[in-house]
Amino acid sequence: MRSKKVSDTAVLAGVLAFMLAFASLSFIATPVSAALTGEWVEETSMEGPRAQAVVLYDAEGIAYVIGGVNSTFPYSATNETSSYDLDTGSWNSLAPLPIPARGAAGVVGPDGDLYIFGGGLPEGAVQIYDPDTDSWNLGTSMPTGVWQGRAGLGHDGMIYVMGGVNETSGITDAVQIYDPLLDSWSLGTPMPSARNSGALVSLYQGSTFYYLGGSTSSWADSSGTVYVYSVDGDYWYTNNDMPVPLASQSGALAVDGAIYVIGGGGDGYNVGPGYDTTYWYSSNDGDWHDGPVLPVGVRHAGAVATTEGMLYLFGGNNATEVMSTVLSLEVAHLEVSLSGTPVAQGGFLNLGVMLDVVFADPSGYYVEAYLVSNSGTFHSGWDFWIPVPEPAELTLDISETMPPGDYTLVVYVGYYSSNFPEESFEVTVTDAYTFEEQLDMLKTNLTELLDAQAADIADLETQLSVMEAALGALEAQLSDADGNITDLQAQLDELQNTLTELEGSMNDVQTSVDNKADNSLLYVVIGLLIVVIVLMALMMVMGRRSGVPPPPPSA
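The structure corresponding to this sequence follows.
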């Protein structure tokens, strides 16, 4: 009987079929959002290299790269202006700066225009860009023109320009305040000490500014000091130092509530090696932490943070090389969902919030929601504090007196220092239902629930059938394997019997050989005895024939 050979591949296929059938039950698991990688990612490069540019981000999701330098050392200022659509990754060339500038300060004003301060000749020029018309005009020049100053928008609508190097190459501690509505200037309380080439970050909707590091001389050194400016009180104080002294670095406040400081160097010079470091400051614990490493060291780059949880870094230089690289880092991701509409008076809505944060570890976040009618009338509002950044299911109770009609539910999620973009949902409120209507709805909902459960059970039965089929195939293959083992055992038994018979035959042969050997020895002994007897007889005969002994020898 020939044995069958079971393929290892066939057995493995059966096992895999079983595993796949079992894995198909994963539909019962609760889906979660994709984990954030926490790594810098390369985006669509700029159309050309750029460093020392003003990089801004507006409410329309457009980033702007304005001026700077675009060639290798020795550097000269450019008037190039470009926009970058963060959603599509596309670049556009815009109207150029009237006056080329590098190392200028800039900010998006309260009117949506872009304001560029200093950084060129004349040093104190104020250049204003209107995105709607793609055109520039000039404002009233600065009281003290500066290069490598930093600007931020206050919650009072004023623009604050801090530090920098003046026209005589002297470093300044000046706080110059520009009123974009009146196109006029005033002065604030000077910085605790003069700085240039640091990073300026606005917090708490522009009520506070952090000035981070920078050179304390014209260019030759760097500082780890963090100065904090209060807009309302017009005063300064210090906060925890950065982990290392930095100048020519980039800074941004991300929507996760953390301040990020990116790249930079040991001085504020135009040339020199750039750092590949990222640090972030948590307002929750008041400490600095290491962030992800950049693909390449960089200084004099421009950073912006979006309200969707992204950081972007544009250009910069490493030594004398000017780069066109655009990098992004996702630090937070938000998903908001709503169910329960239409909703009757006295009913409720279900609001789901899922927030992922990769670096910052806030103590919690808030959720604010309110209903507004199509006419703009504000109605019910809700406030929640979620202790930790984890998924939340929130119940929004609808008042029994809420007028029936169509509404918009507006939802805000964020921290004390920053917010995600508002989410909005259309909601319909209906008249309160009678008891009979509620009973009918309950029956309908119960029927839908039972139908959904029946569908789920049917799906489960189908998947169980697939599993049973896979198990049957596996059992059949295992049965074939058992049959092969039985055949092999029978062949081994037959071989054992043959070996036993062979051993018996060998014993018989050995016995026969032994017997023949014994007989041959007997015959030899008998032959030898006969020879001895014959020899003795001859000797006796020879003795009788001689009779007389021989005579003695003669004398």
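DSSP finds two helices and 36 strands in the chain.
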